[in-house]
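RECORD TYPE: protein structure
NAME: Nucleoside diphosphatase
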Amino acid sequence: MGNYRYGVILDAGSSGSRVYVYRWLTSEAAKAKDDGKKLERLPRLKTKKNWHKKVKPGISTFGETPQRVGEDHLKELVDFALDIVPEDEVEQTPIFLLATAGMRLLPEYQQKDVLANVCAYFQQNTHFELPDCGLHVQVIPGETEGLYGWIAANYLLGGFDAPEEHDHGKGHNTYGFLDMGGASAQIAFAPNATEAKTHAEDLKLLRLRKINGDALEYKVFVTTWLGFGANEARRRYVKSLLDAYPEETELPDPCLPAGLTLDTDGHDITPHEDSKLSYLMGTGDFTACLKATYPLLEKEKPCEDAPCLLNGVHTPAIDFDVNHFVGVSEYWHTTHEVFAMAHKDKAYDLETYQKQVTELCSQRWTDLEKDIQAEKWGRKVDKKTIEEVCFKASWLISMLHDGIGVPRQGIETKKPNNNDSKTDDLLDGAKDRGFLDPFQAVDKIDGTEVSWTLGKMVLYASSQMPATDEALAVGFGSNQPGKPLPSDFQHAGGKYTPSTTPVHDDNDADDWHDHILTANYSRRVPGIIIFLLILLLATYLLCGRDRRHALHHKILFLLGHKPSSPRSRRRKNMLPSIFGSQIPSSASSYAALEAAEPEDFELSDVDPNNSPTLYNNAFYSDTDPSQPTSTNGRTSGWATPATRALSPDLMKTSPSRSSAPAGSSGLGILPFSRTESRERLASLRTGSRAGSPKRSPLIAPLKEI
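PREDICTED:
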């Protein structure tokens, strides 16, 4: 184990799954690097912009085919994580898959089947740390998702580590958290002291741990509104239109730009007179749209446990003097993606925002299409985004101000310097004002995405810090201070394991081992080596015969070998060049040579422009170095004999003649057993080996190279 620990978490949402990778210094490394005040904080988690990846569709689509979830959905995400986590750290790296709204809508038996297959895939195909599938792979309730989001927001804003710098009054130093996805919405905040005492049983007790082992405790209220996400709210809205116009085919929709027609599922449609299917016709009336979305808050439902905000769900009173909220996901996309694209930290102001939305939604759809094609709002804003933005903006305003009760910034709140006109202060970046407005939409803080997955990993990383004697377990549960732990207490997912590797001094920035020790890099090494070898071989073959020979001599000289003379090389290579890769040694092979006429053999012509080259005992043509020339052909600088057809008498063999072995075809002559009479063979011979003192007529005179 090195200086760092890593964590992998998969956010299995309704529209897709996204993997995040985080890392942090071990307790030993952090203590060796820092001391004093810096240890009185939570471990510092780091991630990078390319350390997360999303795949579609959502994991809930595998409800009826759970066995496919591994190869068809998880594999790409797991492989991505393995490319980031160093190979020698994988077994100490926890992996989590936490499913949210989409999976909550599945029947319980389908949820169990999908989660079981997820766990089996992790265990059988990875070596990530997975001690408890029930804790690491689960469908989390909306309250847990909201709590993790609350941790992430306060962690990034600094409310945990430097409370004195985030004094909101009345001893309050944490921020509230709002999240809106496609299916649900969450709220999490720490009520003021009076409300916390009054509603103590409704709060969650959260425990974290600093690097020095000291505990942090917070009492947080969290709730969720299932069906109040942007997509589910739109579905309920369309149903209300169908109920309001049961006999009509064309349904007027004030939440769509004027002239836009969609079917009831939100797809583009061209109406036909003879069609009996209902469709939506945009009227572009944003004021009417606000009135139409208000009933979706269901504030009329009875509140059995007062106070309630909406849908009859109990919520302690919110003190907006000290409870300052940050909103993520749809809260940020709907306020910033179109209407503040150039000002990512632009403060939310209802008066300004509502004017922008009203102006856009009153335009004809044909004009908006031209603006989309001209990329008026940037490349990422597509047709679907503009089709949906009017309803989403209306729903966001209704949720914030009519539902949750956030003061209408710019309308109900005091304007700076009591000036009735818009001032520059309202348009300043929210970050510069310390996020002290009642509401501010955010996406990233100091370059890190505000995601509930970060909150979960902060909780886990803090559990890896060694505890002091008084510190209790890290996690959350019912608000029951002290021991024993409440029955519903959920641990962070692991226990502290001290590092056995000596701490080394390194740079906290982009460490070299992040690149060298990753699985992705190790898998590339063989390919890199093969590529370099091919490059060297190609360079060698293209450098020319003379240069290759010169290089060969230099290498022999450096190795201490004296190159042999051309004549000795010829003597050494003469027979292999003539007879192939093996020198014939059997009596039958010599008999064939003795029986042949001199004119049965001839020398091939030598083309000086296409003379093959000897390389590693194989012959290569200079015109095509990649194709080896048969050893029955020509060698470098001189020609080998080519066979002509043998005489019919010679080709007549006895029935006992055997076929030639693969390695004995140097002259293309089939070896045979000497079963014929010596007299017949003698009549064909032109001379004997012993009786001829001259050079054999089979070999042409050699010339010096």
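COMMENT: The mean pLDDT is 77.
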